[in-house]
Design brief:
alpha+beta, 11 helices, 20 strands, globular
């Protein structure tokens, strides 16, 4: 296998899309901020190149595998989980620190043990796969204990990137919801985590809340046979991350308030409540780890009303990596959000296409969630109305993937009008897939 020199650190850029014109008395400014990281030289996903590419020792990964009793029903589920974890171990680059955790009502170190991490090479990868073969199912589910053990292990490594991959097939029945939330609060900002539910006996809101709190991805693997491919993709993505703990820093002038900051692509994530103060009139919003990628954020600012012809800087957006001593490393990219008051009705009433698109994507996700909740509650009329609106929004925005998932839950009569009928029988996996992926968005057509 070829070795590759350490790639350069990615370069960040910021682009702002907005209609800066406000009518007389107008005070709400909306902007879509596109953040792009390029030039890191990541090779994730390139066959045969993943293991040696990228920084040699600047990452640590903890793999958390559900070993509760339900993983034995059917027995192929546990076998597929072992194979998937082995495939992920094979994807580790040389020099990456790693550990495997077996999760039941307690968390156990499967490999390497002794409260430490292994360093990936041919020998340790093989040892880890041998240890995986001894995994068996039995016991309950207390995911908070898995996360706390992962945090302890990951924090023992002096690395920039700390990442977890978590697999569960059941509900978190052996600890309280408060215990899980406390564990998530304790781990937030310390490592990122992708979460996967296998089969159909797990709780969607539990798995998505784990990924949300730890700035990772969530998905369903309805057929356990698909786990190996999914785990490999997740690990390749983790190996492609090169800058950790990036924050979106938003500065606003006196008299201006931030209504919200939300990630809107590739998935919806409200970051408003995660703000940490960063000096006078500035706040940091966490975005997690980055490789070569692009994401979109919706920033909504309330400005003091001004007279016609006046203009002001409503917000300045930059990218930083906060440091433990309270300082921050500036990543050298910024964008400006402006406000200009005009009596030109055409200018002031025009909605920026990017803002309109992502407002629709947010409404689409909300309509799906509310529609499915109403369906579960037996409110057929309410569910039909909400899911009909979702079909309409998915069609209008070109979100073909979500449209296909909706078509497994409703019979579509008229996309443009949002006319649908609820299907009499819906496979549980189809409903769970729609709910889990409801926050995935499509990028606006530039």
């Amino acid at each position: 296998m070829a070795n590759f020199s350490k790639p350069s650190v990615p370069r960040f850029s910021v682009d702002v899309y907005q209609n800066e014109y406000l009518p007389e008395g107008g005070s709400e400014v909306n902007a879509i901020v596109t953040v792009t990281s390029t030039g890191g030289g990541t090779l994730a996903g390139v066959p045969g190149m993943t293991r040696s590419a990228g920084p040699d020792t600047d990452a640590a990964v903890a793999l958390m595998v559900d070993c509760s009793g339900s993983m034995d029903y059917p027995p192929t589920k546990m076998r597929n989980a072992r194979d998937a974890t082995a495939a992920a171990v094979d994807t580790l680059r040389d020099g990456v620190h790693f550990a495997v955790i077996g999760g039941t009502h307690v968390a156990k170190e499967v490999y390497p043990g002794g409260g430490r991490l292994a360093v990936a090479d041919a020998t340790t990868r093989e040892q880890a796969k041998q240890a995986l073969r001894r995994l068996s199912a039995g016991g309950g589910t207390a995911i908070g204990t898995w996360l706390r053990l992962a945090d302890r292990l990951l924090s023992s490594a002096d690395v920039a990137i700390r990442h977890g991959i978590l697999l569960t097939d059941g509900r978190n029945e052996h600890e309280s919801a408060e215990d899980l939330k406390a564990a998530l609060d304790a781990c937030a900002g310390r490592f990122t985590c992708d979460a996967r539910g296998v089969g159909t006996d797990w709780e969607v809101k539990e798995v998505t809340s784990i990924a949300s709190a730890l700035l990772g991805s969530a998905d369903i693997v309805a057929d356990p046979a698909g786990l190996a491919a999914d785990f490999t993709r997740m690990m390749e993505n983790a190996m492609g991350k090169e800058v950790a703990d990036v924050a979106l820093r938003v500065w606003t002038p006196v008299g201006t308030t931030i209504r919200f900051v939300k990630q809107v692509a590739p998935t919806l994530e409200d970051l408003t409540g995660r703000r940490t103060e960063a000096g006078p009139r500035a706040g940091d919003y966490p975005t997690g780890s980055w490789g070569d990628e692009s994401r979109d954020y919706h920033v909504c600012v309330e400005v003091p009303a001004a007279g016609l012809g006046q203009e002001m800087l409503a917000a300045r957006v930059s990218l930083v990596v906060p440091q433990p001593d309270g300082s921050a490393q500036n990543l050298g990219a910024q964008g400006l959000v402006r406000a200009v008051w005009t009596d030109d009705m055409t200018a002031s009433t025009s909605i920026n296409p990017q803002v309109a698109h992502y407002t629709g994507q947010a409404e689409l996700a909300q309509a799906i969630q509310e529609g499915l909740d109403l369906r579960k509650a037996g409110d057929i009329d309410g569910a039909t109305a909400k899911l009909g609106r979702a079909v309409q929004l998915a069609g209008a925005s070109g979100n073909a993937d979500t449209a296909k998932l909706l078509a497994k839950v409703v019979d579509v009569v008229d996309v443009a009008a949002g006319t649908v009928r609820l299907k009499a029988k819906v496979a549980e996996a189809d409903e769970m897939t729609l709910e889990t992926r409801s926050t995935k968005t499509v990028r606006v057509k530039k």
